[in-house]
Write a structure and sequence with these properties.
The structure is a homodimer.
Chain A lengths: L4 H17 L5 H7 L6 H13 L3 E2 L8 E2 L1 H11 L7 H11 L5 H16 L2 E5 L8 E10 L2 E8 L4 E7 L6 H15 L7 H11 L5 H16 L6 E4 L17 H8 L1 H8 L7 E5 L11 E8 L7 E8 L4 H20 L2
Antiparallel strand pairs in A: 1-2, 3-7, 3-10, 4-5, 5-6, 8-9, 9-10
Helix pairs in contact in A: 1-3, 1-4, 2-3, 5-6, 5-12, 6-12, 7-8, 8-9
Chain A binds a DNA duplex through helix 2 and helix 3.
Chain lengths: 340, 340
DNA sequence: GACTGGCACTCATTACAGTCGAGTGCCAGG
DNA sequence: CCTGGCACTCGACTGTAATGAGTGCCAGTC
C-alpha cells in the first residue's frame, strides 16, 4: 500500500522517460538516466510493487515498464510540479494574440496557438451564450415575411437567425418590435431571459402580437437553448505524431468524437470556474476517447468562466508542460476578453 | 498508342475491381468476374500494353495490376458513365436538407450529408462574399469609440467586424453613418464596392470624415478582401477507412492541408460555374494532397456559382458514384438557396 | 531489514532458409 | 490475333535459430 518516497521517484522517472522516449523503460536505463542512488536490482523490486498496485505494467514479459492510466493519475496529482513557461513561449502567446480584431479572430488565433504550443489537438469554446448578456438586438427585414434577427452579446459574440413571420409585417411594426425587444432584454443575462421574453409577448400590443410570438420562439430557441454553443478546433494533424503507437493504432474514434460538437462541449464546456481539469484515458466518459487524455480549463475575466478550452492528446503526454500551457493561454484569453 | 475497345474494357474492369477490393487485380480474376470473352493470356497481353502506356502498374513482380493516376484519369474521362443516384440517396438528400433554418444550418447539414453519402471528407464553401450583394449594413455602438459592423448579404451570409474609431462619436453621427453606408452600398455586388466606398469617404461631410475613413478601411478589409471566405468540413474520420493503405500510410499531410482554409479554398473555391472538376492524385497542385483525389463543383441558383463544394478521398475511390453524389447535392443546395 | 550482484529464465525481435502460389512473360500452335 | 502451356519471379508465409533486453529470485553484504 504505502509507497515510500523512492518508489514514487521511480514512478516519476518511468513516466518522464516513457513520455520522452515512447519506449518501455527498464531498470537499467532508469538508474543510468536518473540519480536514484540505488542499483537496478532494487529498482526492479520497487517496480514489482508498483506493478502490483496497478501503476505500471509490462507490455509483455521481458519488456520494460509502461505507466498505466492510474500511474499517470498519481503522477499528475502528486509527482509533478507545473513547469513554468519558457520566455519564448510567453512571447509566442503575446505575439499571437495581440492584434486580434474580433471575437472570431481571438478564438481562431487561440486555438491555433494552443495546438502549436502543445503540439496536440486544441479545442476552444466560444464564450458561452448562457453566461453572456444581451448588448443589442437587431431586426433586419429581408422580405415582408422574413426578418434576420441579429444578437450581439457583451462577450462579442454575434448570432443570427432567420425568422419566418406568419404574416407580412410593415416596416413600422418592425421598428416597434426592435425597440421593444431591446428595451426589455438588453443588459440581462441570457440564462435569465425566458421569463422576460414571455412577458414581452404578453405585454405587447395586439397588432404586434403574432409577430412577437414567432420572434419570441426563435429568441428562445436560438439564444437560450444550449444548441448554439460553438467550438473551434485545430491541430488534428498532431494526432499522427508518435506513429500509430498512441491511440492503439486507429485514429478513427478520436476523429469521430472531435467532429461531434456536442461531445466536445461536454468535454471542455462544463467548466464553471477557471480550475484545470485533467482526464486520463479510462477516466473519460466518452468511449471513443478512452485512449486519450484531455487537459481543459475555463477561461474568462476573473474566476468565473465564460467558456472552456483545452487540448486532447495521447495518454502519453507531457502533463506538466501541457497543463502550464493551457493555463497560461486561458489566462491571456481571459485578459484579452476583459478589455472589451 | 491506339487503345482498342477491349483494352479499354480491361482498364475499366481493373479500375472497378481494384476500387471494390482494394487489392491488385490479376488476369485470371478479371476474366472470371467480367464477361470479357477472351482468355487470361490475352488479357495479359493487353495489360502489358496498358502498363507500357502508363495506365496501370505492378506494385511488384508477381502481383496483379493497379491503376495509375493516369489510368484513373482515362477512366473518368472516357470509361465511366455517371451513376444515377439510388432513390434512397435522393430521399436522404431531401430529408437532410429540408428544415434548414438558416444559411449556417444549410451549410452544416450539407457538409455532413456529403460526408455521409460519399463516405469521404466533405468540404463546403460558404457562398462567396465577392459574388454576393449587400442587403443591409448595421452599425451597433459598443462604446463611444467602438462600433460593431454587421453586414448581411443577399445569400444569407452575415459577417461582423469590430471597428475601433479614432475618436469618440456621438449617437447621431452613428445614425448618419448608418444611413449613408446603406444608401450607397445596399444592392451592389461586393466585388464592385471598392470605388463606392472610396466615394463614400470623399463625399461625406466634414464631421463624419474621420469615422467614415476608419469604417471604410474595415469595410474593404472585411468584405472585399478574399480573407473572409469560409468553409465547413466534415467526415475526416472517413480518412481512416481502408486501413493505412490509402494515402501511403500517413494521414498527416492530408490533415494538415484540410486545416488550412486557404488551401481548401483554392481547391474547391475556384469554381466559377457549376461544372464538376476531378483532380486525381498527382494532378493536384498541393503537394500534401498528391496521394488524394478531389471531386468538386460549384453550386448556386442557375449556372453561375455562389461557392464551391466537394469531397476528398483516396485516388482509389468510386468516381462515378462520388461525382453523381457531389453533383446532386450541389444542385439541391443551389435550389435551396434560390428560394431565399 | 534493506540493498546488491549474480544468474537463470522469458520472450519479442531479427535473420535466414525453405515452401507455396498468384501472377506474369513468352512462345508455339490454331 | 487469340489461346493454352510453361518456365520464371517474387512476395507472403512458416519454421527454426540466434540475439539480447529485461525480469524475478536468491544468497550474500552492510
Amino acid at each position: 500500500m504505502g509507497l515510500d518516497d523512492r518508489k514514487l521517484a521511480v514512478l516519476r522517472a518511468i513516466v518522464e522517460d516513457y513520455v520522452a522516449t515512447q519506449e518501455p523503460v527498464g531498470s537499467k536505463a532508469l538508474v543510468e538516466r536518473h540519480q536514484l542512488g540505488v542499483s537496478p536490482a532494487t529498482v526492479r523490486n520497487d517496480m514489482a510493487v508498483l506493478e502490483e498496485e496497478g501503476y505500471i505494467r509490462q507490455p509483455h514479459t521481458s519488456a520494460g515498464r509502461v505507466p498505466t492510466d492510474r500511474g499517470y493519475r498519481l503522477f499528475v496529482d502528486r509527482l509533478s510540479r507545473v513547469k513554468p513557461l519558457s520566455p519564448a513561449e510567453r512571447r509566442a502567446i503575446e505575439r499571437f494574440l495581440v492584434g486580434a480584431v474580433d471575437l472570431d479572430d481571438v478564438v481562431h488565433r487561440t486555438v491555433r496557438l494552443l495546438a502549436q504550443l502543445t503540439r496536440q489537438v486544441a479545442v476552444v469554446q466560444y464564450p458561452s451564450l448562457a453566461r453572456s448578456s444581451v448588448r443589442h438586438l437587431e431586426l433586419v427585414p429581408i422580405s415582408t415575411t422574413r426578418l434576420m434577427l441579429v444578437m450581439i452579446a457583451d462577450t462579442g459574440r454575434v448570432e443570427q437567425r432567420l425568422v419566418e413571420l406568419p404574416a407580412p409585417v410593415p416596416a413600422d411594426v418592425v421598428t416597434d418590435l426592435r425597440r421593444l425587444v431591446n428595451e426589455k432584454l438588453v443588459g440581462s443575462r441570457l440564462s435569465e431571459t425566458p421569463p422576460l421574453v414571455q412577458a414581452l409577448v404578453e405585454e405587447s400590443a395586439a397588432h404586434l402580437r403574432p409577430a412577437m410570438t414567432t420572434l419570441s420562439t426563435v429568441l428562445l430557441e436560438t439564444l437560450v437553448e444550449r444548441h448554439e454553443e460553438r467550438i473551434a478546433l485545430a491541430g488534428t494533424a498532431n494526432l499522427t505524431r508518435g506513429g500509430l503507437l498512441d491511440f492503439q493504432g486507429s485514429l478513427r474514434p478520436i476523429l469521430e468524437a472531435l467532429e461531434e460538437e456536442v461531445v466536445m462541449l461536454k468535454l471542455i464546456g462544463e467548466a464553471e470556474s477557471t480550475t484545470t481539469r485533467v482526464l486520463i484515458g479510462d477516466e473519460n466518459e466518452i468511449d471513443n476517447l478512452r485512449a486519450a487524455s484531455v487537459v481543459s480549463t475555463g477561461y474568462g475575466p476573473g474566476a468565473a468562466a465564460l467558456g472552456g478550452l483545452g487540448v486532447l492528446g495521447p495518454t502519453r503526454m507531457d502533463y506538466p508542460g501541457t497543463i502550464a500551457t493551457v493555463r497560461a493561454v486561458a489566462r491571456y484569453v481571459g485578459e484579452l476578453l476583459a478589455q472589451n
